[in-house]
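User: Modeling request: complex.
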Amino acid sequence: MYSDRVMDHFTNPRNVGEIPDANGVGEVGNARCGDIMKMWIKVENNVITDIKFKTFGCGAAIATSSMITEMAKGKTLEEAEQITNQQVAEALEGLPPVKMHCSNLAADALTAAIADYKKRAAGTSA
Amino acid sequence: MKRIYMDHAATTPVRPEVLEAMLPYFSAEFGNPSSVYSWGRSARKALEGARDQVAALLGASPNEIVFTAGGSEGANLAIKGVAWADQNRGRHIITSAIEHHAVLDTVLWLETQGFEVTILPVDEYGLVSPAQVEAALRPDTILVSIMHANNEVGTIQPISEIGAIVRRHGARFHTDAVQTAGSLDLKVDALNVDLLSISAHKFYGPKGVGALYVRKGVRLSPHIHGGGQEKRRRSGTENVAGIVGLAKAFELAQAERETEVPRLTRLRDRLIEGLQRIPNTRVNGSLDSRLPGNVNVCFEYIEGESLLLNLDLRGIAASSGSACTSGSLDPSHVLLAMGLSHEIAHGSLRLTLGRDNTEEDVDFVLQEIPGIVERLRSMSPLYQG
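Assistant: Request completed. Predicted assembly structure:
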């Protein structure tokens, strides 16, 4: 039911873990529905220099988390904010229809991490 | 890669002896049992022979057996059939929260048609209490349907005791015995049941065929109308090959119960014991009143589908009650009814053992699972290892 690319990211997920000195952290989903994604980003000069994730969820949830870390690394915040859940699914050569709404949250997790970074940055400069 | 099938509660392979018994009825003996000429007569003979076999194994009489297209049809026919036939006596139906959807959804549909429904809760082991059944019975209760053993957690219900209570109150009693036909005694008089449904593919018979026992005197309104087969209770040309296969498989399973049940029970207990060594693991269901081949555990902090995918990559077939594998947004209704939280229910794993499994299989599974669980936990934001 999953594409080869999904299975590749599921079996060899990229950038798993936490960043101890992250300056942005985002978490979406809830355990009740069976998917939680947490994303850590390290931003330097407006560029995402490092990104890591931890995910509780199904194959699609793990693969989308892994995929987006590859897509976002090295991007400016503005570029990273443009990444959509749909684009993540396309980069994985598609997801089963039932997974499109519930497990395809990686872009939301990244957006939440970027928002956290911006909030912290605003707090520091104030 | 060696493949290990541990999902026998989902389906089983057809045994060679069963297939052999079935084969003539696809070609040489292809006749319609309702025809008068020789082809018809030999199909009729096979059909009635199979009916005699099934009746004997249930301790019933042959005209109390209705062949169906499987467990879901059996449950539908039993429940809707009695509800329709007895609706002038009353419109109240009792069932339990952990029934298979073939029962639960049928009863809930009847609720939309003006019937009143009581869904009994279960305890933490998935047991229905006979006292609660008794308390729920009303003068207008026409039918009670409680499963013999649960398909997910393997809990065996006190069917005989519940049946005696239901009979005392004058209602009909159906049990879904789809999970138990291959491993427990199904003598209908000892079970105190009026209706009992089974499905061949759960005990090494073919898919698409089942049987419903209907006690003499129980009125049943048919829902497939037509040629009047099965004493007008289920029209449609009989699936002769499938029915012959069902009878053969049922006979073999019941004959081998004495040796196979202790063997499976030993393998099951070895598996449960090994899995319990993994930290933050709970066993679901009763340890005392449990199907011989059923293992159901929850590993906290991980999700079931990703566990199944990892097992599949290692050649192990199993199932889970997670939302992702149930096709809905909620995890297993059985685990939730037993009081498990959504979070924990998402991490459930069911391994169901069968004829082809060996101690080596169990040990291989026990060798693979801890590493998979550990790896998924290391990726989980819920786990503070």
